[in-house]
Amino acid sequence: MASYVGRRRAPKPRRGRARRAVVVLTTGALGVVGAVATSSAAQSSTTTHRDAVAGMAAPLPVAFTVSRRPLPNLAAQAAESTAAVVERTRQSREQARYVASRRAATRAALASPGRQEEKKRAQDAARTVIAERTAAAARAKKVAKIHRWVLPINHPNLSSPFGHRWGRLHAGLDFSTPVGTPLVAMSSGVVTKAEYSGGYGLKVEIRYWDGTVSYFAHMSELSVQEGDLVAPGSPVGKSGNTGNSTGPHLHLEIHPEGGDPVDPAGWLAAHHLNP
Ligand SMILES: [Zn+2]
């Protein structure tokens, strides 16, 4: 080492190209020495390294930056690069194998008899649900149709309200109408009376599906008898002027749950019927 330092301190001005080559080689050697010193951490090597650094710190007659660059170890780089490529290839092959195995497993699961059976069961269950919903909707529609309410008379002409009149309760509504006007059931139910009944004259009583009972009085003609089933709008007879009546009309009474009569006006409004 001492000889290098000495040579750099006393450069020969002639033969410049050769001198630069020597400096490059020398600095490369210094780099190697430095690397050895750093890796081994031995006291003697460290000392050598320090000496070398001290030598490099001395002013050089040529461009120092060029000579400080470590020489590339091309063989080591090539080996490292090859190893990296091999490793990447191995990883990508492994990944491809994994993906292929997952796909195969999925295909096998989908094609297995158990899976097919499960699929069929799910489809059957879905069909059952749809069928049940359709049936429920049809039932609801049918019930809505069965449970709907209609007025007993077309073109009702209200002539007398519910309330006390001449000292006694007029327990229904009067609809003035010519004798022979068709009267219909107000909803689904059963005819509980169809007979002549004193001051009511010819009368039809119907108990509907919700327990409400209606009276149609002063009729001229009956087309149902006790026990008949009726639907909303089905004919029960014709209006008239029988019993205690001062003119052709329908006398309508409403008895919720078959109890005391209520004002039919409020009851009809509650059932969206507007005479
Ligand atoms: Zn009346």
Task: Give a structural overview.
With 275 residues, the chain is of the alpha+beta class. Among the domains are: 2-68; 158-270, Glucose Permease (Domain IIA) (Distorted Sandwich). Helix content is 48%, strand content 19%. It has seven helices and twelve strands. It has a seven-stranded antiparallel β-sheet. It has a three-stranded antiparallel β-sheet with strand order 5-11-9, with no helix packed on it. A hairpin with a 2-residue loop joins strand 2 and strand 3 (168-170). Mean pLDDT is 83; it is low at 1-7 and 21-48. Residues 160, 170, 172, 174, 251 line the site of zinc ion.
SSE inventory with pairings:
Elements: H1 2-9, H2 16-40, H3 43-57, H4 64-68, H5 74-111, H6 113-146, E1 158-160, E2 163-165, E3 168-170, E4 173-176, E5 182-184, E6 189-196, E7 202-208, E8 213-219, E9 221-222, E10 229-230, E11 235-238, E12 249-255, H7 264-270
Antiparallel strand pairs: 1-4, 2-3, 4-12, 5-11, 6-7, 6-10, 7-8, 8-12, 9-11
Helix pairs in contact: 2-3
Zinc ion (ZN) binds at residues 160, 170, 172, 174, 251.
Structural class: alpha+beta
At CATH level 2, the architecture of the domain at 158-270 is Distorted Sandwich
Low-pLDDT segments: 1-7, 21-48
- Quaternary organization: single chain
Kindly state the mean pLDDT as a whole number? 83
Radius of gyration: 57 Å
The CATH superfamily of the domain at 158-270 bears the name: Glucose Permease (Domain IIA)
SS element count, helices: 7
